[in-house]
Amino acid sequence: MTDEKITIGGEEFVCSIIPAGPVNIVFAANDSGLVGCGAIDVTALAGFGYAAARIRPPDGHTSVATADDLMRGIIKEANPIAEEKGVRVGMTGEEALALLG
Question: pLDDT (tens digit, 9 = 90+) per residue, 25-38?
Fold first, then answer.
């Protein structure tokens, strides 16, 4: 597992990359919310009152493998808490994190 700090919209997030066999589980999170790859269960996180959204890989990629993929990926699902903060299907991961910060 590797972690790196990233700053989006003046807010700091920790981006974690967890190798899982042939893929990586990738997400960026802080106390306000999370954007992650397809392995993240945004519905379960809503049960804890935590804003979360899942992305699909950026065009030309078969999976989300890096922090850059996460930033350039496209939101495909957001829980109601993330939606209340303005996160919408179709925006980039970076745009969503800026709203969650």
Answer: 999 999 999 999 99
Give the count of domains, the chain.
Answer: 1
pLDDT for res 74: 98
Give the span between the Cα atoms of 41 and 76, in whole angstroms: 12
The secondary structure element, H or E, covering residue 27 is strand 23-29
Q: Which two tokens stand for residue 82?
A: 């993330």
The upper half-sphere exposure of residue 88, i.e. CA atoms within 13 Å in the direction of its Cβ, equals 3
Q: For the chain, how many residues are written?
A: 101
Domain that residue 63 falls in: 2-100
Q: Find the DSSP H helices in the chain.
A: 42-46, 67-72, 80-84, 93-100
Structure tokens at 24: 């990586």
Q: Which CATH number fits the domain that encloses residue 17?
A: 3.30.1980.10
